[in-house]
Amino acid sequence: MTGKHHLKRVAAPRSWPIAKKTSKWVAKPSPGPHSEEYGMPLIIVLRDMLHLADKAKEIRQILHEGKVLVDGKVRKDHRFPVGLFDVISIPELNANYRVMIGQDGKFKLVPIADAGMKLLKIVNKTMVPGGKIQLGFHDGTTMLASNDYHTKDSLVLKVPEKSIDQHLKYEVGSMAFVIDGKHAGTLGKIKDIRVIKSTTPNRVTISTPQGDFDTVEKYVIVVGRDAPAVDLGVKA
To answer: Which GO terms describe its biological process (predicted)?
Structure first.
């Protein structure tokens, strides 16, 4: 069980919704989308969250048969990394889920009806050979696009083809979701964006019916204008 493909459960990221003492080891994500901080191996979704099987061997068989899709594509690696806003589909069960962060800072699954949309935050832009613009997203994936989009904006893509359906601007008045910190899992409207000219992170004020709060800019993802553009299973 030990080696580069596993890590100790007690050392697993706090965002992983797993019991720490049921066994010593847990699968480590394969290289791919999502950092280890914001991603987890697919086996955790299928075994520990959906309880489709108790044993890793049984989960691997389910995947080998092509019964599980991530963002519209069949995935057969039980260690394939999945994370925030990914769409998990099991056609045989007519079930679709969006991976979200709960207020406890742990991943949770939200049942959804439409598995064809994926929300992504733009975290960087680069110019590639030929003068084309490449967008880099929060999950580590990239795509070529026009120069109309800016870092910190979000896009809603149709999956698996990755065509742009909506452009959500990072600006005051937009609906935002907080992914980390003590306000993780909270949905609200951006009330203020404060750019701090130092090494201190920029701050964002989020307004909710329960009151306003401040958080670090990198924890904020725009998810809509007056309402979330996709079903997040969270109310403002």
So the answer is: translation
Predicted structure pTM score? 0.89
In terms of domains, do 193 and 155 share one? no
Claim to verify: residue 73 and residue 121 sit in the same structural domain:
no
Question: How many Cβ atoms sit within 10 Å of the Cβ of residue 67?
Answer: 17
Q: 3-class SS at 198?
A: coil
Structural domain including 94 reads: 6-111
Q: Are residues 164 and 89 in the same domain?
A: no
Per-residue pLDDT tens over the stretch 126-174: 999 888 999 999 999 999 999 999 999 999 999 999 999 999 999 999 9
User: E strands along the chain, which residues?
Assistant: 6-8, 25-27, 39-41, 69-70, 73-74, 81-83, 87-90, 95-101, 107-111, 117-128, 132-137, 142-145, 154-158, 163-168, 175-178, 187-194, 203-208, 211-216, 220-224
